[in-house]
Amino acid sequence: MAAIAAVDRGDRVTLLEKNDRLGRKILISGNGRCNLMNTDSDLAHFHDADTGFARRALEAFTVEDTLAFFHDLGIDTRVEKRGRVFPASNQATSLVRLLEDRAQRTGVRIVYSADASDLVKSEGYSVTTADGQTFDADRVIMTTGGTSAPSIGGSDDGIRLVCALGHRSTSFYPGLVPLETERSTLHKLQGVRAMVSAEALVDGKVVKQDEWEILFRYYGLSGLIILNLSEAVAPFTEGGNVSIRINFFPGMDADTLEEKLRGRWNRHPHRSAAFSFTGLLPDKIPPVLLPLLNIPSDRPAAGITQEDGRRIAEGLTAWDVRVLDTRPFAEAEVMVGGIVTDDIDPRSLESRISPGLYLAGEMLNVHADLGGFNFQWAWSSGWIAGQGA
To answer: Contact, 175 vs 335, CB < 8 A?
Structure first.
């Protein structure tokens, strides 16, 4: 995107691509479908240390601008739940091929397998690749990403090159990633999916909440809701008291659920406690959770006391799971952290430390929620950097 924006201004542009083809991260996103953006333009979906930094780029190249750009490119789109936008072809390859065609048609010179290993500033800039090639330029745009998805080239190489010129970076954490939790009998739910609401808590304070699908794994928790909540807790898993509070009945509090369950137990007193949840929850959940609430799964509904019912309702609407860590960067969709934005001009994304150097995308200390928002940051920041350069 940055190369296309720069060449559109009349500049001569050389794109150094680390991999042997463009857009490998695009190709694996959305299970190969590429959730390329979201129709929701609420800035609350974007997270940075300086709350006004990302706003400048996102308001300068908006959701509407992004849709118009891709439609002009030839990408028809479809909008799915929660405003997630996908190519109508359901193929990420469509996006990559048309972006590559646009870049080549407008005169961008693309050099593949060009792994930048050194960046030197004199009157202009000199970039040296791992195989010894040198490229000189008046201005350099860095869009080297972060440490997520290392199997397709994700690393902090670009960040280290920028820091060598005087920039600072934060610590890095995996984001939009599954969470490892305390080992318990929950491992028996491996592979079970459920629609839930959940809260992420740090030291007892709710830092984020959502309603989406959860997936239980042998190591802990995954699924769309956990990926989305993970970015808020990732920096605190070392030394912090981090937990996920799950409500298996979204929209219900304990009082409402207790009344609902008591009605079912009264109508079908012969059913076991676990069987009484059939039609409400996935079948594997009650036999695992009820014993943890001191309710035998085979207890007849007629034997569930008022105290038992209250304990069940409170437990299933506020089930706390202690988080020990995130899964590794290899399983993360984004990196939380990056280059400190204090030293970047938000209007152009030019470095205030090294004029002529522009930074965009994941390498900056900006990340976003699950659902296409991180791609929106990539498109917006890439466009602004390319136009600024």
So the answer is: yes
Pairing mode of beta strands 242-247, 319-326: antiparallel
- pTM equals 0.96
CA angle 385/346/126 to nearest 5° reads 45
Query: Which residue(s) pair with 37 in the sheet?
Result: 85
Residue 222: phi, psi to the nearest 5? Answer: -145, -160
- CATH class of the domain comprising 2-174+330-388: alpha beta
Residue type for 388, please?
Answer: G
> What would the two tokens of residue 43 be?
């800035």
Q: Is 363 within 8 Å of 323 (Cβ atoms)?
A: no
Instruction: Tell me the per-residue pLDDT of 314-368, one tens digit each, with 9 for 90 and over.
Output: 999 999 999 999 999 999 999 999 999 999 999 999 999 999 999 999 999 999 9
User: Which amino acid, residue 98?
Assistant: L
SS3 379: helix
The string of DSSP codes covering 187-202 is GGGTT-EEEEEEEEEE
Indicate the DSSP class of residue 260.
Answer: H
CB 317 within 8 A of CB 257: yes
Q: Where are the domains of the chain?
A: 2-174+330-388, 178-326
CA distance 77 to 376: 15
Residue 44, burial from CB neighbour count under 10 angstroms (0-12, 13-18, 19+): exposed
Question: Can you list the alpha helix ranges (DSSP code H) found in the chain?
Answer: 2-8, 24-28, 53-60, 63-73, 92-105, 157-163, 224-233, 254-267, 285-292, 306-317, 373-388
**Is the pLDDT at 51 greater than 70, yes or no?**
no
Q: How many CB atoms lie within 10 A of CB 30?
A: 19
Residues 149-202 have pLDDT tens digits of 999 999 999 999 999 999 999 999 999 999 999 987 888 999 999 999 999 999
**Contact call for residues 185 and 288 (beta carbons, < 8 A):** yes
Between CA 178 and CA 328 the distance in angstroms is: 9
DSSP state of 327: P
Say if residues 19 and 153 touch (Cβ distance below 8 Å).
yes
For residue 69, what are its two tokens? 């750009």
* 3-state SS, residue 181: strand
Q: How far, in Å, CA of 99 to CA of 25, rounded?
A: 14
